[in-house]
Amino acid sequence: MMPAQPLPDTHAPFAASKIVTVDVAAGGHERAYDIVIGDNILSQAGSLIASKLGKRRVLIVTDSNVAPLYQARLEAVLSAASHSVLPTAIIPAGESSKDFTNLQALLNHMLQQAIDRKSVVIALGGGVVGDLAGLAASLVMRGVDFVQIPTTLLAQVDSSVGGKTGIDTPHGKNTVGAFFQPKLVLVDVALLDSLTKRELKSGYAEIVKYGLIKDKAFFDWCATNGAQLLDGNRAAQIHAVTSSCQYKAQIVAADERETGERALLNLGHTFGHALETITGYGNILLHGEAVSIGMVMAFKLSAQLGLCPHDDAYRMRDHLAKLGLPVMPPSFPYYNIDQLLGLMKQDKKAEAGKLVLILARGIGQAFISRDVKDSDVRDIWAEFLPK
Question: How far apart are CA 352 and CA 362, in angstroms?
């Protein structure tokens, strides 16, 4: 296994806008890969892929929102680097595309293009595209190489790193999937300019999560600089993305298949995924918004159980609210605590139908808990759900 990288100095000033490479030592040398982060990386995608994988037959997977913005540009830079570009697959935008129907359609498209084991699948888009394309790449021809080019902040700091792929089912979010590591991740912060402020805020929830899990100094950095990041400060964006990727890379290297420490990355997700499922994976609640609410609930539960100072729970909630992230579930006519609790017990961390939650002893001190009573979780839902 490759040695762990030192964590970023979260007290340092912004780094200059340059290309940064983060090594991910997932599963040892044979599954290790690089995350290349910088400004205008997309224009170098063809040469960067060629330098790592050679000149290959490539098939881009993107969605109906991203395609008009970047499809032609990526196809051009790939062709200019002497890759053979197969017809691009365009899926409908939105979380609802992460289902069996779209997975089957994508696999059929790949096979119709005579994809082979030497081909490379390139995921150009947010988390939905990355999850679906990665799962399809793991299945077609029993597995072909794939590259992530995440276009949302959330995907750049979270879903594109670590090899989790999957689709949603009526039983919950990402309940069908596989661990399948990419060969390369190319992060171009210039692509963030196409996002709405709401989408940026959704991604920011996953950035601040790393500070809440294991590094109070990084949370303090976020508290000072988060607004600049959301306002488009390029240096702040590169610093935050690099720091987030380094944190996740270290955790993935130590626990690729989420049998231990990697579960900490799910802070807020067990509550959040239940909210996403019950509200229908639509525009009512974006993933990062659900995580924001879930993290607030996890800290509040921790405080009420006497595990975490109430001041820390208030501070993290106030920071999220100040930057415009939701800290309470949205109004919705079909909330049901029994159903929400049932969805939480279908979470991938659950063990024999028993809740496994990520709680906190304070900011930067998350831990895995297997002994929270159902009644305590019910009380939190009753407190947070709209009356």
Answer: 28
Q: Model's pTM, two decimal places?
A: 0.88
Residue 59 — φ and ψ, nearest 5°?
-130, 115
Helix (H, G, I), strand (E, B) or coil at 347: coil
Separation of CA 22 from chain center: 16
131 and 177 Cβ atoms separated by less than 8 Å: yes
φ, ψ of residue 287 in degrees (nearest 5) = -55, -50
- Tell me the domains of the chain and their CATH numbers: 20-196 (3.40.50.1970), 206-384 (1.20.1090.10)
- Judged against a pLDDT cut of 60, whether residue 30 lies above it is answered with yes
Cα–Cα distance, 171 to 190 (Å, whole number): 36
**Encoded tokens for 326:** 């939701």
pLDDT at 230: 97
Amino acid at 291: V
Which residues are catalytically annotated? 142, 164, 206, 248, 258, 262, 266, 269, 273, 287
Q: Is the distance from CB of 95 to CB of 168 less than 8 angstroms?
A: yes
Residue 101: count of CB within 10 angstroms of its CB: 10
